[in-house]
Write a structure and sequence with these properties.
heterodimer, A: mainly alpha, MetI-like fold, B: 349 residues, D-Maltodextrin-Binding Protein, domain 2, 42% helix
Chain lengths: 264, 349
């Protein structure tokens, strides 16, 4: 019982800042401006399917890119000496010391610069104010969230397991596929969740780097609350997103268990 | 070690003394809560008000009418003084969110020009005091756009592809397409609004971005060539980059009046009236005019301006240009919903 008590500060926190807001969202989603029960807000969601699909697509692409880049980086980092590890870790974390919005603003200016270089080099590729810029921004902002959990699970990996696999005649590819990858799956799983969930609901990146030319679902929610002032519809879209993300995470964890078992 | 401790104790004592001094100066009821646009006041004015009246100013800022509306709608009784624009004054009056001002306590209201009293959004002039006004025009970079644009159609020209900016809000952006088509800015005709949106969808491939505050950096640095802009902002940007120029196209434009109002559940209405009266005092109004670069609705302030400002066609266009402008009115609910759905179509196109 005593052990239970030390978590009380968190319980208070969770009730005030998680449970209560969730209940408020649920309440707003199913009521109209006068407070009467309605399903109309939820039905409005059909208008926003294309936006939702686009958000899903961008988040998926950004997460996949983060996974490939992040795994390779984490793998390299884990091979280095302690000293190099520290340096690489600081380099990775350095941008995180700056506020998210500032970083995104800086990215906008950086892309301007890159655009000028491309133009000077005669390459006709748009890297500003389009989908590519948004995905680049998402990768830039969320890569550390992918690298850290994978790196941690690689660090925890018992080197003797790898040696055993090598002794038993597995080549490097098979060691990776049959030993390292399955054992780091928990890191990969939490990395994917930590990147996918925030990227799907972003609104700063699409506004700053996408030139606000198309909305992601985060922009629609923000507009409902702050532009057209229809908090009920805003809450309904948030609720649908919440359920959708939960659903995806459940499917994912199910697949993850399967793959883990299959590979082990 | 010891001397450090003494310094720390002294510092804490000093802080306590400062707090006590602060407590003595301000009675709890002598606070005025002000909610204004960013960069829309010379903040020293607030300090002057505190010194002169002993009323503490708690000052918060917002970046557009709609987000201000969302905040005050959700939290009545938080603010005393707000600064909505014309159409938002109309909406807030209609929704009974504003408190009538007792003009006996705001004698400086007499200095407001007659043409800014009894506006359509507040016909009885019970709820609002004009603070600034201006027009929307075209800002262009003369090193790229060499001929003065004469029509809003300039924002649809192929030759400035990727160098055109538009505002990231539905009212201003759809409004510009309406102006281009010679329609009223306050139209409720679905057909006209749909044609305007179709034009904006065509324009989208030519745009660099939809912007709000980014407009300053993009135009001043020259990374964009052409955009619609509020006249006061145009004056600020031209002073930063002399290559920029401002013009009001022939089709006419929007004229806006930003007002000062008191909230219905204002915690301290009397302090709010004192604050409004203070802002209308000639010297204070002049400071704010100079800081914001927006046009003043105050006769005395205007009369005291040097000729080059008074004759600046950006800030003070002549009567014939004014006659071609239209002030936004509060649109009916179904038109607001149509705006929202058209804006969604535009962003999904």
């Amino acid at each position: 019982m005593k052990k239970h008590l030390i978590a009380v500060p968190y319980y208070v926190w969770a009730v005030v800042f998680i449970a209560v807001p969730l209940l408020m969202i649920g309440y707003c989603a199913f009521t109209d401006a006068s407070g009467a029960f309605t399903l109309e807000n939820i039905q409005q969601i059909t208008k926003y399917w294309p936006v939702m699909l686009r958000s899903l697509l961008y988040a998926a692409v950004a997460t996949a890119c983060c996974l490939v880049i992040g795994y390779l980086l984490a793998y390299c980092m884990a091979q280095q000496s302690e000293r190099t590890k520290t340096v690489l870790m600081i380099l990775l974390m350095l941008p995180m010391w700056i506020s998210f919005v500032l970083r995104t603003q800086a990215m906008q200016d950086l892309l301007d610069l890159v655009q000028n270089w491309l133009k000077a080099a005669g390459i006709d590729l748009q890297v500003r104010n389009n989908a590519l810029a948004v995905v680049l921004g998402l990768i830039y902002n969320y890569l550390p969230f992918m690298v850290l959990p994978i790196y941690t699970s690689l660090e925890k990996l018992d080197k003797r397991v790898i040696e055993a696999a090598e002794d038993l005649g597995a080549n490097r590819f098979n060691v990776f596929r049959k030993v390292i990858l399955p054992l780091t799956m928990p890191g990969v799983g939490s990395g994917i969740i930590m990147v996918f969930v925030p990227t799907i609901s972003t609104f700063v990146v699409s506004e700053k780097l996408g030139g606000a030319k198309f909305n992601l679902i985060g922009n629609v929610i923000q507009e409902q609350f702050l532009q057209v002032y229809n908090p009920n519809v805003g809450a309904a879209i948030s609720l649908v997103m919440l359920v959708l993300i939960l659903f995806i995470l459940i499917i994912f964890s199910f697949l993850d268990d399967e793959t883990k078992e299959g590979l082990l | 070690m010891n001397s450090k401790r003494i310094t720390a104790i002294l510092a804490i004592l000093a802080l306590l003394l400062m707090c006590m001094g602060g407590c003595k100066k301000y009675q709890p009821n002598e606070v005025v809560y002000v909610y204004n646009w960013g960069e829309y006041i010379d903040e020293e004015v607030n300090e002057l008000f505190e010194q002169e009246t002993g009323i503490k100013v708690v000052y918060k800022i917002y970046d557009n009418n709609e987000s201000m509306y969302a905040v005050v709608k959700n939290a009545p009784g938080t603010y005393d003084v707000v600064f909505p624009s014309d159409y938002m004054v109309g909406r807030m009056i209609a929704e009974e969110m504003l408190e009538p001002i007792n003009f006996d306590n705001v004698p400086n209201f007499q200095y407001i020009m007659e043409k800014f009293k009894h506006m359509d959004y507040d016909p009885g002039n019970l709820y609002s005091v004009p603070y600034t006004w201006g027009t929307v025009g075209l800002l262009y970079n003369t090193s790229i756009v060499t001929e003065t644009p004469t029509s809003w159609n300039a924002l649809w020209s192929e030759e400035y592809k990727d160098q055109i900016l538009m505002y990231n809000n539905s009212r201003d952006t759809i409004g510009i397409a309406l102006l281009k088509n010679n329609c009223s800015l306050n139209t409720t005709s679905e057909a006209e609004l749909r044609v305007a949106t179709a034009d904006l969808i065509k324009q989208k491939s030519l745009l660099q971005a939809y912007v709000s505050d980014d407009i300053f950096s993009k135009m001043e640095s020259g990374s964009a060539a052409l955009c619609p802009v509020y006249s006061g902002d145009a004056i600020s940007m031209i002073s930063e980059n002399p290559d920029l120029a401002y013009t009001v196209p022939a089709e006419g434009t929007n004229r806006f009046v930003d007002c000062i109002c008191i909230m219905k559940d204002a915690p301290n209405k009397e302090a709010a009236e004192k604050y409004i009266n203070f802002l209308c005092r000639q010297d204070i109004a002049e400071r704010n005019r100079e800081f914001t670069a927006y046009s003043t609705p105050q006769q005395q302030v205007y009369d005291a301006l040097p000729d080059e400002i008074r004759n600046d066609p950006i800030a003070y266009p002549d009567d014939s240009s004014i006659s071609k402008t239209e002030v936004y009115t509060n649109l009916p609910q179904e038109t607001l919903e149509l705006y929202n759905s058209l804006w969604n179509d535009l962003k999904n196109s």
